[in-house]
From TrEMBL:
Pfam families: Fungal_trans_2. This is Fungal transcriptional regulatory protein. The lineage of its organism: Eukaryota, Fungi, Dikarya, Ascomycota, Pezizomycotina. Keywords: Nucleus. InterPro entries: Fun_TF.
Length: 324
């Protein structure tokens, strides 16, 4: 019954859009509802985000013509920047994957806007700025464009300059993890303020971005493994800390994926798997299941093949199975 209603909804929406204009807010609501069905559905067919990709181009065009004038528009713009960034490694769009500066103009539109969303925006994105998501996007595009030409290398260097200025040091650890003399019981549950949540989010994105950076600079599998190991250990400490605190945000799925691909011990894999499973209620069962399958491919190989770990980032077919 649900699948039948879903098919009717798509057909009806297509006919309506073809026959008459529709307000952007109405169209956005329809697209998001269809995407929610894809994320939380349990059908056997491979999920699709074609409807969201179609809406994305329309709304980005609108923002160029008409900059945001209220909080709702700003949140829409932030959502589009975020979504393009975190999906570009897995489900890239044709026009954006060839241009790592694709999001620059939209981040600039956001930056010059006098509208701010205060606490709501802070809690929605855990304090992360669109410029950080733009760095995620650039790294994802550049990783797919290897080997890089001079212009692309210059863009990568700009990202290298950006990260330490806007994200914490990639070796930052939770205070509880840094304090080796403190014994934590199994029932320990830290209470996180909004600032604590934001700091943890920034640290996770820092670790994940530097991991992708390391693989982009040194695509050979034997180089920079020590740095990647150090970065991933920091990420596991933060994920374990957030698990103890019971803080699970779908915004942190992207760094959890990158950090998880570098996992090499059972404990590390259990930590990242626990975090991704806990996101099923917010990110959707299909999303979390697709990530777990990618982990299995990275950790166990395919058909008894050798484990590839973080180098699965160079396997576009495997990455394309992730639906977030």
């Amino acid at each position: 019954m649900a699948l039948e209603c879903h098919s009717k909804a798509i057909s009806g929406l297509r006919r309506h859009l073809e026959s008459s204009p529709v307000q952007q807010e109405v169209a956005l609501c329809c697209m998001l509802l269809l995407h929610i069905f894809e994320k939380f559905g349990d059908g056997q067919q491979r999920p699709s985000d074609a409807h969201v990709k179609s809406a994305r181009g329309y709304f980005l065009h609108r923002f160029i013509q008409f900059p945001p004038t209220n909080m709702r528009h700003i949140l829409q713009l932030e959502s589009l920047i975020y979504r393009i960034a975190v999906t570009s490694l897995f489900q890239p769009r044709e026009e954006s994957i060839k241009d790592c500066a694709f999001l620059d103009k939209f981040v600039d539109i956001w930056a010059v806007s006098s509208i701010r969303c205060g606490l709501w925006r802070h809690s929605l994105w855990i304090g992360l700025q669109p410029s950080t998501f733009n760095a995620v996007f650039k790294l994802s595009v550049l990783l797919r464009r290897l080997p890089l030409n001079e212009l692309q290398l210059a863009e990568l260097e700009r990202v290298v300059e950006y990260l330490p200025q806007h994200l914490p040091p990639h070796r930052a650890l939770p205070l509880q993890s840094a304090d080796g003399d403190r014994e934590l019981g199994d029932d320990y549950r830290p209470t996180l303020t909004l600032d604590d949540q934001s700091h943890a989010a920034h640290c996770l994105f820092s670790s994940a971005c530097w991991i992708v950076m390391a693989k982009t600079w040194h695509s050979a599998t034997t180089q920079n493994q020590e740095l990647i190991r150090e970065l991933s250990l920091s990420g596991y400490c933060w994920l374990n800390y957030l698990i103890q605190a019971g803080f699970f945000s779908p915004v942190l799925l992207w760094p959890a994926i990158i950090i998880g691909l570098a996992a090499s011990t059972v404990e590390e894999r259990n930590t990242v798997t626990t975090y991704v499973h806990a996101l099923a209620h917010a990110s959707g069962l299909r999303a979390s299941a697709s990530v777990i399958r990618l982990f299995k491919t990275a950790w166990e190989g395919v058909n008894g093949g050798e484990s590839v770990g973080i180098d699965v980032l160079f396997d576009s077919e495997a990455l394309a199975t992730v639906f977030i």
